[in-house]
Amino acid sequence: MEIVDLETIPVVHTLPNGDGVGDARGFGHTHGTTLLRLETDTGVVGWGEAFAPGPIAEATIEELFHDEVVGMDPFDVESLAVQSYTDPYHFGGSVFVQCAVSAIDIACWDIIGKTVDQPVYKLLGGTTRSSLTPYASTMYFREDGRSIEEPIREAVQAGFTAAKIKIGSGVEADIERVRVAREILGDDADLMVDINGNYRPDQAVRTVNAIEEYDITWVEEPVPPENLTGYRELKERVNVPIAAGEAHFGRFAFKRLIDDRLVDIVQPNLARCGGFSEARAIAKLATTENVGVRPHIWNSGVGLAAAIQFAASVSDYPHTRHVPEPMMVEFDQSDNPLRHEILVDPFDPSDGSLDVPQEPGLGITVDEAAIEKYRADR
């Protein structure tokens, strides 16, 4: 079997003026990513995603990987991640190279699963789960002045038993947002907060210590991702678990977070970290050192499917049935048709549980006609 066709497909959804959503750093008006379609000489099609702008992802794949991938046996996929660090030399540390590798890797694993008639999570080994706990990623900062209570109430009404909210605009405002979220979610729900790297260490310490009483499951990116000394300082001064990883890529960046005990939870994004092959390596590094793993997801339906397959495979170590801790996956609640319209059967988290697809590969059927609606290159 060999790959005979490769197509990169940039897609984008734009929000109307005045409807931007975002975090403490600012508002965003677009959801954009790059899909990858691979086809083999046997007619099997695999889908992947590079969480990067279309023109950059397309140019990177065409310049560095096209000739390598066309003619490649998809079962040789794990060698691609290794090669990305050595050939082309010095480029493997680039985020856009790893995004390109992610798309190819995910698509190859999709092909492998379809070929052997198994979902990817079973091929990855580790723990196998039939369901996951989705958490609503919500309470974004909004241009339209929507009340902070409304999105949390909607999440509860939809059946979510866990949520992650945006904070990072000052201690008092952070306390109020967390207080409201906890009051509406109830005492038993998992509540996470995301600062998106908007604070210096001293600012983050004040906020995290102030909201600790609200039983926070983790605080995400309290300082910028490159501020490793800031993460070290926080670990010494706060008691709430720290999570990071959405802006990191490749096993070596994650190894630093893990080896230096800078975080309690790593969050690889499957469409940025290097795909399944690198995510599996990252998970093994993390569980070996007893660090938690929870994938970051702000992708299309393809990237969401990849994250679900990966999450279903992550080891429970060191937990047993006596320490129940659900494997949670992020479910973005912003308006993003790239998440659901491009899938024939979209994921449904509405009952507080997310079924892991048992169909081969990623377990999804991509609606190629729907993709055409959101192509950014037409």
From TrEMBL:
> What keywords are assigned to this protein?
Isomerase, Magnesium, Metal-binding
Q: Which residues form the signal peptide?
A: none
Record carries keyword Isomerase: yes
CDD domains linked: MR_like
Q: Which PROSITE patterns match?
A: MR_MLE_2 (PS00909)
Protein known as: D-galactarolactone cycloisomerase
Q: What Pfam families would the database entry show?
A: MR_MLE_C, MR_MLE_N
Look up keyword ATP-binding and say if it applies. no
The uppermost taxa in this organism's lineage are: Archaea, Methanobacteriati, Methanobacteriota, Stenosarchaea group, Halobacteria
All copies of domain Mandelate racemase/muconate lactonizing enzyme C-terminal, residue ranges? 148-241
This protein's cofactor list reads:
Mg(2+)
InterPro entries, A to Z = Enolase-like_C_sf (IPR036849), Enolase-like_N (IPR029017), Enolase_C-like (IPR029065), Mandel_Rmase/mucon_lact_enz_CS (IPR018110), Mandelate_racemase_C (IPR013342), Mandelate_racemase_N_dom (IPR013341), RHMD-like (IPR046945)
Give one GO biological process term.
amino acid catabolic process
Which one of the record's GO molecular function terms can you name? Answer: isomerase activity
Origin superkingdom? Archaea
